[in-house]
Design a protein that fits this description.
Blueprint: H1 14-33, H2 39-64, H3 69-89, E1 90-95, E2 101-105, E3 173-175, E4 178-185, E5 188-195, E6 201-208, E7 225-227, E8 230-234, E9 239-244, E10 250-255, H4 256-260, E11 274-277, E12 283-288, E13 296-300
Antiparallel strand pairs: 1-2, 3-4, 4-5, 5-6, 7-8, 8-9, 9-10, 11-12, 12-13
Helix pairs in contact: 1-2
């Protein structure tokens, strides 16, 4: 009777090759042949394919590969270590409009924001050149008094200044020389006033409450409204505040989630306050808040 051990069966590579081939075929189909509504859907299909293929390869490694167990566990440990190293070094700052992740080093320096400086600017009344709220004075995205060159190849615009600002999706509200926007700097939501002519920071007013969403991106989603010498801004967490346009002093603040039971979307509150003059002459700020039995609310601009 022989004591020789039976020969070890060869490593089973074909399931791994099949998984990779099917994944590559699925990606080729998604990007070259499939009819999809947008690039976003192709990116989503790509992410799903990579995740499923990765999971299938791990199952193959542990259960079907016929590798020695020490090799299987070593490979699995290496994958876990590689994932932990990637998570420690790289962060997802958000996604592009096509849902492609935007990556950044975790140790990258924060932007060097300009400190507020006394520029001597003052509040100016609304004029034909002002853009005091989301989509402009008439909420139609137009400035009728502004004449722009139509051929930017022949007469391109000239850059006057460029500065870093915090993350977010807020546009600018502009009245006179005051350019107001909403930013996120670290864990602070910041309303900032810049001098429209120079880019110098006139004042910044911050409060705790940073917002992060991998798909929707970080920071505020709304554009402030300038009304009667006040800046009204609402953050992604549903807190609305009014600041003095001249110095950024907080005049009033309300938490619409706590007070009105507002339904806060997963991607954060994204509706800019729109100015409305009521028949009796009162300045109102109209906001959609959702919630049980509620759609729109109107707040007095003066608080």
């Amino acid at each position: 009777m022989s004591n020789a051990s039976s020969p070890r069966r060869p490593i089973r590579w074909w399931p791994a090759a099949l998984i990779v081939a099917v994944a590559l075929g699925a990606l080729l189909w998604a990007w070259a042949f499939a009819t999809m509504p947008s690039t976003q859907h192709r990116v989503q299909a790509t992410a799903q394919t990579i995740i499923l293929a990765g999971f299938a390869l791990v199952v193959w490694l542990l259960l079907l590969s016929r590798l020695r167990w020490r090799h299987r566990l070593a490979a699995l440990g290496g994958l876990v270590l590689l994932g932990a190293l990637a998570a420690a070094l790289v962060r997802i700052e958000g996604v592009s409009g096509d849902l492609v992740p935007q990556l950044a080093w975790r140790f990258a320096a924060e932007p060097d924001y300009r400190e507020a400086a006394d520029t001597g600017t003052t509040f100016a009344s609304w004029s034909a050149d002002d853009y005091p709220q989301f989509l402009g004075p008439n909420r139609d995205g137009a400035l009728p008094a502004l004449a722009l060159a139509r051929d930017w190849q022949e007469t391109p615009p000239q850059e006057l200044w460029r500065i870093p600002v915090g993350s977010g999706w807020s546009g600018f509200a502009v009245v006179g020389d005051a350019a107001i926007t909403h930013e996120q700097r670290g864990d602070q939501l910041v309303v900032a006033r810049y001098d429209a002519a120079t880019g110098e920071a006139v004042w910044t007013t911050g409060r705790d409450g940073g917002f992060t969403n991998v798909v929707g991106g970080d920071g505020p989603r709304t554009t402030p409204t300038i009304v009667d010498g006040r800046v009204v801004a609402i953050g992604p967490n549903g807190v609305i505040e009014a600041l003095d346009l001249s110095d950024g002093r907080r005049l009033w603040q309300r938490d619409l989630v706590a007070e009105l039971g507002m339904t806060l979307p997963d991607w954060g509150y994204a509706a800019s306050p729109l100015l409305l003059d009521s028949p009796d002459g009162e300045r109102l700020l109209v906001l959609p808040v959702g919630g049980d039995g509620r759609g729109l609310v109107a707040l007095q601009a003066g608080g």
